[in-house]
Amino acid sequence: MTRMNTLRSGLLAGCGSSVGRAREWGAIASFAVLSPAFCAVPALAQSSESVAPAGSGDIIVTARKREESILKVPVVVSVVSGEKLETLHVTDVTDLPRLVPSLFLGANLLSIGPQVTLRGIGTSSSDPGVDQSVSLNIDGMSLGHGLAYASGMFDVGQVEVLKGPQALFYGKSSPGGVISIRTADPTDDFEVIARAGYEFEARAKRGELIVSGPLSDTLGARFATTYSKADGYFKNAAVPIVETGAQAGYKRESRPREFIARGTLRWEPTDRFSARLKFTHAYNKATHPEAPQLKYCPEPGQAFGVGPLAPVNPIPLIHYPCKLDRTVYNVYPDANSYSNGPLPNDGKPTLKSDQNYGTLELNYEIIPQIDLTSTTGYYHLKSSSLFGRTAAAAPFFAVTNNFSRREMTQELRLNSDFASPFNFTLGGFFQDGRMYDRVGFHRNLIYGFIPPTILNDDRATTVHIKTYSLFGQLRYKLTEQLEIAGGVRWTDETRRETVFDFQNNVDLTPTLPVPKINANNFSPEATITYTPTDDMTLFASYKKGYKSGSFKIAVPAVAGEDNSFGDEQVQGYEVGLKSRLLDRSLLLNFAFYDYYFKGLQVGGITPSNEGVPVIRTVNAGKARSYGVDLDFAYYPPGIEGLTLNAAIAWNRARYTELNNIGCYTNQTIAMGCVNFPNPLSLDAETGLPRFTAQELSGTQMVRAPEWSGNFGFTYEMPIGSGLRLQFSNNNQFSSKYPTFPAVGVPNDSDNQKGFIKVDANVTLKGAEDRWEIALIGRNIGEKITASTCYTNNGAGQNFLGGNNAGGVTASAAGLPETGCYTDAGRQIWIRLTWRPFN
Fold first, then answer.
1. What is the phi/psi pair of residue 189, to 5°?
2. I need a surface site. Which of 268, 334, 574, 615 has the fewest CB within 10 A?
3. How far apart are CA 292 and CA 47, in angstroms?
4. How far apart are CA 246 and CA 255, in angstroms?
């Protein structure tokens, strides 16, 4: 409010129309169309999306929890507008890496959800108890759990991707950055938007409906809903060996279903007070949403025999091409062939989630220069899942998972906007949260050689979270062009763990050596901003941030086990330039950053003593991430309607000290299993203790390519009778990067090779945007990639010779295969939009 209201009014006047007549695109319609820049400028910073013609205005962002021009804010931020999201059919947060360099999201199984990495910093642990290092902020509420990213990004006005630590204004769980989403608000005029689309590759259908407008002079409302379903992009060619307890899978995967509904009320009874209430319900269901495939198989001819199953012996472990493509081989467990059965969902591996979340934002102008903002947040997630798949014979084990997470948050924030050189931001934050994770292991009863004692578990972990935080920033203008700012956030967080064993009806909490952890952290930040002209800003900043420790809950603790891990901390600096050149027809931005991490929370999958893979999370010793972000957008003065854009990121992210990630199955000394010998486990060949951990110091961080970026264009032209034709193209590229922390993996299969993915579309728009028809192609070259992979020994480890990791030679089980959770393939959409009241 205050001076920003005056700025907003001036920008609106420059638009030449009322807010109600400023039209964003269909189902991602945005009330954030507040200026010519918003009408046509998705970004002015490190994402270099299409922007408005020269001299048309500016974009307003909330990177520092107050409205500021993106050109003036000393933060490296990529902004993607609703218009760009619509043009490229971005309907999920997992689509954003196509538009933001150095941002990657990897799929994962069960209730873990997508794993987010920004500038090489992210969570690699396959554990729902580990918060993301890149926080998701929806309408002012910060969320750290992976499944929150899987909820559809629907009816969005603007997305801001803040790079680097953001502890001062966004708190914990943001050492890598923040993805901030502001959903659309009610419009001043009545509006109805209907949209329907069909995708040919996955046989997907999607419908959207938005109704928005005023209920009175002071109250506006908006309701938006969407439903989609698909058969799936991947074709399942597996043939089950039913004698092993397997059943046939669906012919197509992953058969996603999604329903989202959101309601918004905005009340402005006076010029000094406003309230905004938002509530969203999101339901998702899919079979094998992680799209598992084997990428590389060093010993494809392996097989095993089970006497009672003749004449199907020997049973092949692998009998199909091990490569990432559109054909998968997945059979499902028979629901009645497993212990503690029957399995849910008739044995079909499925993930279902229900998410309900909302915010209440109250803004009050105490005096003309001081605003008070209250943001109350609520989030509740419930998910259930079943995992268990192989290519032909039934899996040895199936895993069931029931997970829930509840968050209640409250933030109070005081912002000043004095005409004097001195200004401030002060605030406080409180969080009350709870996680519940119940994991059940079900043994295949047909395989008589599996001892009943192995993973015959049904345990649940509950983690209670209490967080208190205070923060403040002082800003002082030495001159009209030079500002210095300093601030700090203090955070105190306590997490308590309880574990219950349902199998034996025993509370294991009294046996836990560390049932409670506490973090007390100060995260300072200092910036200097120099604005020599209205079209240029230079800045430098020093920041510290952290992510609190937690408990490993993917496999609940046993009696006497310490499953806690510590905080993740970061400090470093960045410098940047933001500019508008050539009479504002060229937007050019540059940033250099250098950050040091300690206690980085890193995950790995290692075999237990019984030879069964176990998920572990550890605190890495140290890491460093430094690099350059560069982008531009150019509007050729002589070609109206054409925008050229490009963004490139060079990033060098390395584990400078990491020596405690467990060895994978049969990883020998020569392959890098050289740390922490176990005197209780001797190598049969040498008689010496076997090593238990890899040496990963100096290796490239997970999902951290040295080069990544995007480039493309948008061109719109009139074709008569009020019709317009728009062409758009976006190309995402990346160099090679690791998909999990490991060394010595056969055939370098732990790395995703460099790639380029091409998007292209054409849209015909009717007069006054009353209707449009779009043909949209995504990844039209059908480049299938994977951002999350793992090693897996299909030979059964102990069943065919056991695990000799850390020894001189591998056991008879041989080297492990590399499996991956694949990213989306090609999509070809035809989409119709109707706005009857335009």
1. -110, 155
2. 268
3. 31
4. 20
Q: Dihedral through CA 776, CA 782, CA 787, CA 790, nearest 10?
A: 140
How far apart are the C-alpha atoms of 106 and 94, rounded to whole Å? 8
Q: What is the DSSP letter of 329?
A: -
- Using DSSP, state whether 237 is helix, strand or coil: coil
Residue recorded with tokens 């996680």: 435
Q: What share of the chain is helix, strand, coil (3-state, %, to 5)?
A: 10, 55, 40
Residue 305 pLDDT class (50, 70, 90 cuts) = low
- Please name the residues in contact with 480: beta carbons below 8 A apart, sequence gap of 6 or more: none
Higher-pLDDT residue of 134, 610: 134
Overall residue count recorded for the chain in this entry: 838
Which tokens is 623 given? 């890491």
Both tokens of 552, joined, read 């490993």
Sequence-separated contacts (24+) of 311-314 with Cβ below 8 Å: 312/241, 312/243, 312/244
**Model pLDDT for residues 800-834, shown as the tens digit of each residue:** 556 788 999 988 778 888 989 999 899 999 999 99
Rounded-to-integer distance, Cα 480 and Cα 500, Å: 61
Give the amino acid at 127: D
The CA-based dihedral angle spanning residues 279, 285, 286, 289, taken in that order and rounded to the nearest 10 degrees = 40
Rounded Cα distance between 140 and 358, Å, is 9
Mean pLDDT, the chain, as a whole number? 87
Position 822, amino acid: T
Element containing residue 39 per DSSP (H, E):
helix 36-40
Taking 60 as the threshold, does the pLDDT of residue 461 lie above it? Answer: yes
Q: Which pLDDT score, from 0 to 100, does residue 737 have?
A: 97
Q: Burial, 188: exposed, middle or buried (Cβ in 10 Å; 0-12, 13-18, 19+)? A: middle
Dihedrals phi, psi of 743, to nearest 5 degrees: -130, 155
The encoded tokens of residue 361 equal 């934002």
What is the mean predicted confidence (pLDDT) over 668-682?
Answer: 92
CATH class held by domain 3-834 = mainly beta
pLDDT in tens, 774-807: 999 999 999 999 999 988 776 654 455 567 889 9
pLDDT tens digits, one per residue of 149-186: 877 689 999 999 999 999 999 988 899 999 999 999 99
Alpha carbons 726 and 714: distance in angstroms, whole number:
7
pLDDT at 309 over 60: no
Q: Which residues contact 683 (CB under 8 A, 6 or more apart)?
A: 689, 690, 804, 806, 807, 808
Strands 568-581 and 817-822: unpaired
Residue 378 has pLDDT above 50, yes or no: yes
Q: Kindly state the helix (H) or strand (E) to which residue 6 belongs, with its residue range.
A: helix 3-15
pTM for this prediction: 0.89
- Give the Cα separation of 701 and 738 in Å (integer): 7
Question: Parallel, antiparallel, or unpaired: how do β-strands 422-443 and 121-122 relate?
Answer: unpaired
Angle among Cα 448, 451, 452 to the nearest 5 degrees reads 100
Q: Are strands 246-247 and 219-229 parallel, antiparallel or unpaired?
A: unpaired
How far apart, in whole angstroms, are the C-alpha atoms of residue 523 and residue 525? 7
